[in-house]
Amino acid sequence: MRRRFVTLRSYYKWLEGEPEGIASPFIGLRLDLKIPQRLPRPVDRPTLTTLFKSTKHLIELNPEDHLLNRPASSEQITGLIVRLLVVTGMRIGEITHLRLMDVSGACSKIRVHGKGNRERTVYVANTRLLSDFRYYWEKRSRAEDPHAYLFLNARGDRLTEPAFRKRLRTISNSLLIAPYLTPHRFRHSAATLLIEEGVDIRIVQRLLGHASISTTEIYTKVSDNSLVAAIERADTLAQVDL
User: Fold this and answer.
1) Averaged over 129-148, what is the pLDDT?
2) Could you say which DSSP state residue 37 is in?
3) Cβ neighbour number for residue 214 with a 10 Å cutoff
4) What are 72-129's pLDDT values in tens digits?
5) pLDDT tens-digit profile of 215-224?
6) pLDDT at 66
7) Which residues make Cβ contacts (< 8 Å) with residue 180, sequence separation at least 6?
8) Which of 46, 160, 39, 144 is nearest to 93 (CA)?
9) Residue ranges with strand state E in the chain
10) Domain 45-219, CATH among 3.50.50.60, 1.20.120.450, 1.10.3720.10, 1.10.443.10
11) Positions marked catalytic
12) What are the residue boundaries of the structural domains of the chain, listed by start?
């Protein structure tokens, strides 16, 4: 709306200089457009479980499985990226611009180039995910220059944000997930899950790369699961209504 008003103002300003001299209806008009604050919509836990069950790991738990000798499929790489998004809270643009040299610490540390040229470090702590990520990174590192992009498409070019969103739309349709999955919903899930598990909000702020704590505080409003669990444990009425 703001962009359209600016366009109209410029158009009428141009008309004022024309021979017709049409007066601008914006003269003396002050517009105060307040954007309503919308709560983030994380992917709920049951949906995440369904999603992860449908996406195979790069390394299966069965030791007799010979999957290690095969190249990773597009579906497996999509599952790997989704798991990384949920664990690290990275933006889709941040993860698709990762380069091989941004990964260190036996693949447990990732250097992220965020908004405003701010750098931060995120960590991969989950053992199962770390095994998959290390396996993928090592195979890519043996074949590529350290400056090469970490995640590629089928043509060998950088995996783009729209291409990954398209993958998620396909998964959403196949699993009948509505509203459909988006990369930013996984970022919301990362923050919400951590806060529900009692992680300090300033740690969550640092993980997400928020410049202001007020941006992170919005996730405390959507973390109702931990609130309900605490109220059920307390059950204060049961102590007085005997």
Assistant:
1) 92
2) P
3) 9
4) 788 999 999 999 999 999 999 999 999 999 999 999 999 999 988 899 999 999 999 9
5) 898 888 777 6
6) 47
7) 168, 169, 172, 173
8) 160
9) 103-104, 109-113, 119-123
10) 1.10.443.10
11) 91, 115, 184, 187, 210, 219
12) 1-35, 45-219
